[in-house]
Amino acid sequence: MSPQTQTLPDVDTRPEGTETRGDDTPKMFHYVRKDKIAESAVMGTMVVALCGEVFPVTYAPKPGSPVCPECKRIFESMSPAGDD
């Protein structure tokens, strides 16, 4: 029996930070395409959040981190992967 391979959809997102506080900690995190996170973190390229914010990925969110309300609203309105 061979293991199954599953492909992740292009619409997967994860929160990433932009706006910073005085201590360089982001005020809130935004949802961006998962496949762009590593590229941005390594190459410094810009990503576009669901809300339209454009920024380079510099921080990873921790549990309980504040999330952009507009990104969250858009993300929650999206259909789950595989549903059409």
Structural features, described:
The structure is a single chain. The chain is of the alpha+beta class and 84 residues long. 23% of the residues lie in helices and 19% in strands. It contains two helices and four strands. A hairpin with a 5-residue loop joins strand 3 and strand 4. The protein is globular and about 30 Å long. The termini are far apart. The N terminus is likely disordered.
Number of strands: 4
Poorly predicted regions are: 1-9
Note the main sheet.
Answer: 2 strands, antiparallel
Number of helical stretches of at least 4 residues: 2
Strand proportion: 15-25%
Overall pLDDT, averaged?
A: 75
Q: Could you state the order of secondary-structure elements as H and E?
A: EEHEEH
Helicity, as a percent range:
10-25%
Give the overall form. Answer: globular
Radius of gyration: 14 Å
Widest sheet: strand ordering = 1-2
State the distance separating the first and last CA atoms: 31 Å
Q: Which structural class should the secondary elements be placed in? A: alpha+beta
List the SSEs and their pairings.
Blueprint: E1 13-17, E2 29-33, H1 34-43, E3 46-48, E4 54-56, H2 69-77
Antiparallel strand pairs: 1-2, 3-4
Provide a brief overview of the structure.
With 84 residues, the protein is α+β, with helices and mostly antiparallel strands. Helix content is 23%, strand content 19%. The chain is globular, with a radius of gyration of 14 Å.
